[in-house]
Amino acid sequence: MIIVKATYGVKEDYIATNKQNINTFLQDFRRLGDDFKYTVYSNGGTFVHLSHFKNEAIQAIVLATPSFKAFQQARDASGLIIPHQIEVLSLEGSTAEIFVH
């Protein structure tokens, strides 16, 4: 399993657009199946994306989704106030199975 946390901050006047763009790629992600979990959290203009990928193959498919790539490009062009940061995490435990083996 691959777990990635992405954090960034957008300008106040870009928050609504960012949320719309997130909704667009999440709709596309829902069509890709159950081999990954993707959640987005926000606190004002700070956004945290948390993704759990079953394997590298599904990660590659998700990251190549056109609406996701368009979201990333628009987000970066908006003038981030908190730079985009990526962390790869290790799962230590959960109250539920993330992927059924």
From TrEMBL:
This is Quinol monooxygenase YgiN. It comes from Chitinophaga rhizophila. The lineage of its organism: Bacteria, Pseudomonadati, Bacteroidota, Chitinophagia, Chitinophagales.
